[in-house]
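RECORD TYPE: inverse folding
INPUT: structure tokens
STRUCTURE:
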């Protein structure tokens, strides 16, 4: 059967969103419930996908569009290009996910020189006819032929200046006719051919343009930011025009059933008299508040209010609507669930529950988890943002808004901040030794690095705004200056960063503090009720842990101990350990660090109050800790009583060609077991101390990083366990503990059955697992990933969105293999993907026990985990329902077969035994029918009971 690509509005409904796009499905739904909708047809998203496969609109789709035109002409009583009763249409895009302003629209299509004369004469409204035509030429030229709007706007401005008027509506019919001629001349000058007169040619040009707009730069960026696959495609809606520019008793507008900024239950919106939709968006004229419509056209306003009520009750959500009024008659052009701020989303969801319109489960599902970011971090003042000059756009690595004076070193950031200055730290890239400066800065901007670079990961953990990977910056760190967007910036100059969007602004943009209302707590409580996965946090300090617990974390899934070594009071001792020549020297240096590490862990255990705390042992290569400054090298040499040259030799020997795959992780513990022993003692002593007074006892989880072979893991685990048992015996106490490993090397996933024999838990370190699976450096991938996006090789950054096909397959394999040899194995994820909603849904699907993410992403993870659980349960219910239906169908078929057999048998009996037996047989059939009915009733009742359950 041939694929159906074209649907009249009367043939669709709201459930056909994937096929008809959001706009097409909602136009069909509004048609079905009897609202005033100009009629038309929708060309499906499948047609768009086919267009990209074929490189053209194929014959089958063309034929269906032609058929759609004929049916539309029959419905409207008008015809394309007709000189008696011409049909004019709009052509609009409509993807299944709302993408406001991302794709293209064309109005008044079907006009040409002859048609415009006809409609001017027949309506007696020449100015309206001429206005429609000049608008159409401008929109078609811009959208279809890519002749920029600016050329036409310049001609409009010149005409208004020539006539001494300021508004488009003050131009006469003659002025507009002259403008249309100028527009067509401009079109020919730019394109080289005359403006198309054939309405069919215009229509196909517009349809192709809408399909093409699915792949325009702004749509591609929006899709990547909002997890919308290119494969979805966009639908095209061809709809009879309603003319808001017909007269002063006509107009157009946009409205919301609730305030999209606050969520307050009141009608919000704007309209313009004698205008078309583009005028409201373009801002050429100042619209009036929707409340003013009651004064201008009270009967239309009353009808519109009723329509708003119908739509919100029908969709059970706040609606965003577009409408047109033609000669005091209302037409609905679109409705959709309205975009809203995070604050409004929470209020609307809670209010709808209180109004009895939705359930708490619906409320949890209707909020985009990613939007919660803006509740937890400062944001820019919207008014100030409109005036702010944009310098560049890079990666929004850690959300929030930051403004301050530029500094180029961590030391300067700390110093300037200590005297009350707000600073933005600008670096080529950050390293662990920059941690104190990063803490002091309002925001961090790096030239290199991606979403999982050091700057990004640390900034997210601290809740600090960060923009990374701005390759447009020409950096001169030595002279403390950089060039961006043609301007040179020096130390002390001001910039502002938006860590949510990655936008960099010139100067100081005013910010506003984050606010969390009571609705936040209600939504989170509902989310916690439905989710099945726990949510932990990645935290390295008691302060971060406390913030995460405040935001609902259930313990720590990753404590990176290496960050503790960079504190000023311990880096010197750690460097002594690195530059030691003997085990004894190393142990002496580590002994200085031991009490500090123990104190750190005690702080974390206390902050988590009995919840799990997973402590990852030292992971980075040692070269990251050694000094680079001459004075620091001299101080280290003096502390160890060694020549400066010897210290430099040691530092040089630590250099590696590929340090991320070098001497790091558990390989350090194999080479220097005394490091693992010291860290184990610190963990166990801390746990024992805290448990002396704690009501909720600590069960520490020691995580050994970078295992790739079961034997190396066993070697290190044996060291850890021996040390633990020694500490417990010495203290004379009982202490439960666990030793597990990170799965971050593909080989670990492939041999997980062997590795699981020596692990109490697996935690997927998906930053490294992604890096090693792809063979990409996560710090350098940003240099070429843009090319991958542009060529559609990738649609998402694999370091930001978990690669479910490749990395995900390794995770599934590791779980299956690991559980086969260790059924008690518990499972988590602690890479940055642990805070990404789509990745969390996958983690729920494959059976992880918890996700772990940076503190400020904990609420996002809680909500995403709840949504994942609800969706998974719904999928199971649907699957079970389908099985019940299939069983009922099979039973009915068997019953039918049995019934036929009985009838055949009774017929044979009646023929052989005569009339008496025939009557007996009839009674037997009746009895059988009753029995069959009873069986069917039983099946139906069982199905109802299942549905209730």
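DESIGNED SEQUENCE:
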């Amino acid at each position: 059967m041939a694929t159906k690509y074209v649907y009249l509005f009367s043939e669709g409904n709201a459930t056909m969103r994937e096929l008809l796009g959001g706009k097409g499905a909602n136009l069909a739904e509004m048609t079905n419930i009897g609202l005033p909708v100009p009629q038309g047809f929708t060309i499906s998203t499948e047609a768009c996908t086919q267009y990209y496969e074929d490189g053209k609109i194929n014959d089958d789709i063309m034929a269906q569009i032609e058929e759609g035109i004929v049916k539309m002409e029959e419905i409207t009583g008008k015809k394309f290009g007709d000189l008696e009763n011409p049909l004019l249409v709009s052509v609009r895009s409509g993807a299944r996910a709302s993408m406001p302003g991302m794709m293209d629209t064309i109005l008044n299509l079907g006009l040409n020189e002859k048609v415009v004369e006809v409609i001017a004469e027949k309506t007696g409204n020449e100015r309206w006819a001429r206005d429609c035509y000049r608008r159409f030429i401008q929109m078609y030229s811009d959208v279809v032929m890519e002749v920029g709007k600016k050329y036409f706007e310049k001609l409009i401005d010149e005409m208004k200046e020539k006539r001494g008027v300021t508004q488009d509506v003050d131009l006469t019919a003659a002025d507009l006719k002259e403008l249309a001629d100028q527009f067509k001349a401009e079109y020919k000058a730019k394109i080289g051919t005359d403006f198309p007169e054939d309405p069919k040619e215009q229509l196909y040009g517009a349809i192709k343009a809408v399909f093409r707009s699915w792949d325009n730069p702004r749509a591609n960026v929006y899709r990547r930011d909002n997890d919308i696959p290119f494969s979805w495609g966009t639908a095209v809606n061809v709809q009879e025009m309603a003319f808001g520019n017909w007269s002063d008793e006509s107009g157009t507008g946009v409205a919301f059933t609730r305030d999209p900024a606050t969520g307050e239950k009141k009608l919000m919106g704007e309209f313009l008299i004698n205008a078309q939709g583009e005028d409201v968006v373009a801002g050429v004229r100042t619209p009036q508040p929707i409340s003013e419509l009651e004064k201008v056209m009270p009967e239309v306003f009353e009808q519109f209010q009723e329509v708003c009520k119908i739509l919100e009750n029908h969709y059970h959500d706040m609606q965003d609507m577009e409408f047109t009024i033609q000669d005091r008659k209302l037409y609905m052009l679109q409705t959709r669930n309205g975009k809203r701020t995070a604050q409004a989303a929470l209020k609307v969801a809670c209010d709808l529950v209180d109004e009895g319109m939705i359930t708490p489960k619906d409320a949890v599902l209707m909020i985009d988890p990613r939007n919660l970011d803006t509740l937890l971090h400062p944001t820019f003042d919207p008014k100030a943002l409109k005036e702010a000059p944009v310098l560049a756009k890079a990666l929004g690595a850690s959300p929030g808004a930051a403004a301050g004076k530029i500094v180029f070193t961590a030391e300067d950031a700390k110093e300037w901040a200590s005297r009350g200055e707000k600073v933005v730290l600008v670096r080529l890239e950050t390293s662990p030794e920059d941690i104190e400066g990063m803490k002091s800065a309002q925001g961090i901007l790096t030239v290199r690095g991606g979403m999982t670079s050091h700057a990004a990961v640390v900034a997210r953990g601290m809740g600090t705004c960060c923009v990374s990977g701005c390759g447009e910056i020409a950096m001169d760190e030595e002279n403390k200056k950089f060039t961006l967007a043609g301007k040179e910036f020096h130390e002390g100059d001001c910039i502002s960063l938006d860590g949510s969007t990655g936008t960099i602004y010139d100067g100081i943009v005013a910010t506003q503090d984050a606010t969390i209302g009571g609705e936040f707590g209600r939504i989170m409580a509902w989310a916690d009720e439905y989710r099945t996965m726990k949510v932990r946090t990645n935290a390295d300090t008691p302060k971060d842990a406390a913030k995460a617990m405040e935001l609902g974390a259930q313990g720590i899934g990753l404590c990176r101990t290496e960050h503790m070594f960079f504190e000023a009071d311990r880096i010197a001792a750690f460097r002594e350990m690195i530059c030691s020549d003997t085990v004894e020297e190393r142990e002496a240096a580590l002994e200085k660090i031991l009490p500090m590490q123990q104190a750190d862990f005690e702080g974390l255990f206390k902050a988590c109050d009995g919840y799990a705390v997973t402590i990852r042992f030292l992971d980075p290569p040692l070269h990251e800790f050694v000094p680079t400054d001459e004075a620091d090298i001299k101080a280290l040499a003096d502390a160890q009583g060694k020549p400066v040259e010897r210290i430099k030799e040691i530092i040089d020997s630590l250099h590696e060609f590929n340090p991320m795959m070098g001497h790091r992780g558990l390989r350090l513990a194999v080479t220097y077991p005394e490091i693992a022993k010291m860290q184990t003692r610190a963990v166990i002593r801390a746990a024992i101390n805290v448990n002396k007074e704690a009501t909720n006892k600590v069960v520490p989880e020691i995580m050994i990083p970078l295992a790739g072979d079961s034997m190396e893991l066993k070697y290190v685990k044996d060291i850890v366990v021996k040390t633990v048992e020694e500490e417990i015996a010495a203290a004379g106490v009982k202490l439960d503990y666990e030793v597990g490993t990170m799965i971050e090397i593909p080989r670990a996933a492939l041999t997980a059955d062997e590795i699981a024999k020596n692990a109490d838990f697996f935690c997927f370190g998906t930053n490294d697992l992604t890096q090693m699976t792809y063979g990409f450096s996560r710090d350098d991938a940003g240099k070429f990933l843009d090319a991958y996006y542009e060529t559609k090789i990738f649609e998402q950054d694999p370091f930001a969105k978990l690669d479910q096909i490749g990395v995900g397959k390794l995770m599934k394999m590791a779980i299956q293999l690991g559980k086969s040899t260790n059924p008690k194995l518990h499972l988590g994820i602690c890479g940055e993907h642990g805070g990404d909603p789509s990745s969390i849904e996958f983690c729920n699907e494959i059976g992880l026990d918890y996700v772990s993410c940076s503190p400020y992403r904990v609420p996002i993870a809680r909500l995403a985990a709840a949504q994942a659980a609800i969706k998974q349960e719904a999928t199971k219910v649907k699957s079970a329902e389908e099985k019940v239906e299939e069983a009922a169908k099979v039973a009915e078929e068997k019953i039918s077969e049995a019934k036929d057999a009985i009838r055949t048998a009774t017929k044979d009996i009646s023929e052989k035994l005569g009339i008496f037996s025939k009557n007996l047989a009839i009674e037997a059939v009746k009895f059988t029918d009753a029995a069959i009915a009873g069986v069917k009733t039983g099946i139906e009742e069982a199905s109802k009971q299942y549905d209730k359950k």
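NOTES: DSSP finds 36 helices and 31 strands in the chain.
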